[in-house]
């Protein structure tokens, strides 16, 4: 089994589509399912994989001979990512790399049925689309954020409340627990990695920036899938080096003091 990854350059929403093989025909089928649920894109960028190149050629023939107006009415343009400019495909390359690493880690050598793999992809897609992008407002009493999920369904994505199966040995008669175990394990490993990468990226983009009062931050915590703990900075504490080392935070449940190493500033205009 394989899967296609669609990444929106505007909203950063991610769509995962099951694919039985890497043929051009399967790529077309996955694209049709994507369009049926998400709408028709005006332009598609993809890498130089042979299956994508074959799909592009097949699409041209298909459009002319079979369903001419299906794509031409929307004017979908297919662009290949040129090998000499790999940075241009950085957005989807980073997404695929992160997903592959953590999915390999949680699935390992397990053999999944098509139903189990499809269900796992749907839940992992929800995890990825739950990540906070920007603050919903500048109100210091507002802890809400905008996520890719808001652009997909109009609100934040929710997960079904289930026991923690990550450390449980799944018996053959309890295979129904396997999908939950996979999505929970993916959440635990991917969310930690995502927060670490976000923290490093923030330092790289603005190395001298410090937290300020009213900044909206993510708190590194052990939470259930699709849950992100948000807080506003209400007070800062400097160390002997005159740099901020700890802050007081206001959350929906009260106030707390945390080291800056446990916090990640939410991206702004990222």
Automatic annotation (TrEMBL):
Question: Which InterPro entries does this one have?
Answer: DUF5641, Integrase_cat-core, RNaseH-like_sf, RNaseH_sf
Molecular function GO labels: nucleic acid binding
Q: Name one Pfam family in it.
A: DUF5641
Record GO biological process = DNA integration
Occurrences of domain Integrase catalytic (ranges): 1-156
PROSITE patterns in alphabetical order: INTEGRASE
Task: State the name under which the record lists this protein.
Answer: Integrase catalytic domain-containing protein
**Organism from which the protein derives:** Nephila pilipes (Giant wood spider)
């Amino acid at each position: 089994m394989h899967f296609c990854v669609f990444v929106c350059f505007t909203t950063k929403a991610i769509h995962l589509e099951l694919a039985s093989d890497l043929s051009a025909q399967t790529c077309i089928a996955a694209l049709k399912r994507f369009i049926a649920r998400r709408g028709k894109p005006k332009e598609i960028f993809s890498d130089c994989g042979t299956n994508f190149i074959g799909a592009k050629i097949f699409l041209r023939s298909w459009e002319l001979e079979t369903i001419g107006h299906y794509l031409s009415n929307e004017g979908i343009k297919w662009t290949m990512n040129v090998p000499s400019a790999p940075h241009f495909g950085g957005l989807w390359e980073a997404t695929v790399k992160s997903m592959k690493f953590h999915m390999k880690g949680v699935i390992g050598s397990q053999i999944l049925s098509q139903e189990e793999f499809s269900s796992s992809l749907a839940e992992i897609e929800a995890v990825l689309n739950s990540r906070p992008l920007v603050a919903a407002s500048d109100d210091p009493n507002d802890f809400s954020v905008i996520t890719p999920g808001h652009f997909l369904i109009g609100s934040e994505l929710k997960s079904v409340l289930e026991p923690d199966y990550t450390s449980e040995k799944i018996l053959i008669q309890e295979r129904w627990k396997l999908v939950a175990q996979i999505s929970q394990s993916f959440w635990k490993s991917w969310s930690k990695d995502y927060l670490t990468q976000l923290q490093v990226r923030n330092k790289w983009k603005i190395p001298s920036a410090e937290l300020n009062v009213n900044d909206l931050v993510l708190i590194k915590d052990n939470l259930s899938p699709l849950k992100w703990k948000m807080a506003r900075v209400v007070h800062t504490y400097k160390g002997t080096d005159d740099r901020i080392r700890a802050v007081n935070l206001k959350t929906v449940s009260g106030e707390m003091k945390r080291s800056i190493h446990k916090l990640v500033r939410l991206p702004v205009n990222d």
